[in-house]
Design goal:
heterodimer, A: mainly beta, 7-stranded mixed sheet, B: mainly beta, 6-stranded mixed sheet, about 55% strand, globular
């Protein structure tokens, strides 16, 4: 079974440009999450999808970040326009749903390292 | 949100030694996971352990939910055990809060 995959693995862009990160969850996982780790800080939650619906986007830093999950399959995270403080590693994770609510353990992708210069 | 504290922040071991990593959390949780971040940056699942004790080879973990802590044991450490170990918890099954990690260095 394939794990969570993310593309690209690295991205270097200039301040003001746009970048789109992609995540493909484990097949059959309804729950998809985005997290990020910026320099020197802890890994922080960004948002959570259940299928195509955003359940919790409390961690999104500002309106320069837009996440989508079309058809409840893969997800994209767009940063527009990128700022220097957006540099860091962006992780995607997925988990299956429990039959009667809740979710099981999360499995993480390898991350996308974003550098904004 | 839930506060997660991991100790020690850094740990240097001689190959073959045993060690214990600790994770304290500030509120009741229904999800607790331990991860190992390998040299390539990938987070590898070690344990899903909101309560109780589990073992996997040389690694084992115990979570005492009522006292809000979890312990990760590494026995007979090997150089491949080097890396950062993260504890992450959630009170709603979804949003994980991570600790700062324990950096483990195992010397041959």
């Amino acid at each position: 079974e394939a794990g969570v995959t993310q593309f690209p693995s690295h991205s270097v862009i200039e301040k003001g440009q746009t970048v789109t990160l992609r995540c493909d969850p484990i097949s059959g996982h309804d729950n998809l999450y985005w997290y990020r780790r910026v320099m020197g800080k802890e890994i922080k939650f960004l948002l959570h999808f259940v299928k195509e619906s955003k359940q919790d986007e409390s961690g999104m830093p500002n309106n320069r970040f837009l996440a989508e999950r079309t058809g409840g399959t893969y997800s994209t995270l767009k940063v527009q326009p990128a700022e220097l403080e957006d540099s860091g590693v962006y992780f995607c994770a997925s988990s299956p749903s429990r039959r009667h609510g809740g979710a099981y353990e999360q499995y993480f992708g390898p991350g996308t390292r974003l550098t904004v210069t | 949100g839930i506060q997660v504290e991991q100790s020690p922040p850094d740990l240097i071991l001689q190959e073959g030694a045993n060690s214990t990593l600790r994770c304290n959390f500030s509120d009741s949780v229904n999800n607790l996971q331990w991860f190992h971040q390998n040299p390539w940056g990938q987070l590898i699942n070690l344990f899903y352990i909101p309560s109780g004790t589990k073992q996997n080879g040389r690694l084992s973990a115990t979570t005492v939910a009522t006292e809000r802590y979890s312990l990760l044991y590494i026995s007979s450490s090997q150089t491949t055990d080097s890396g950062v170990y993260f504890c992450a918890v959630s009170s709603n099954d979804y949003k994980l809060s991570f600790g700062a990690g324990t950096t483990v260095t195992v010397r041959a």
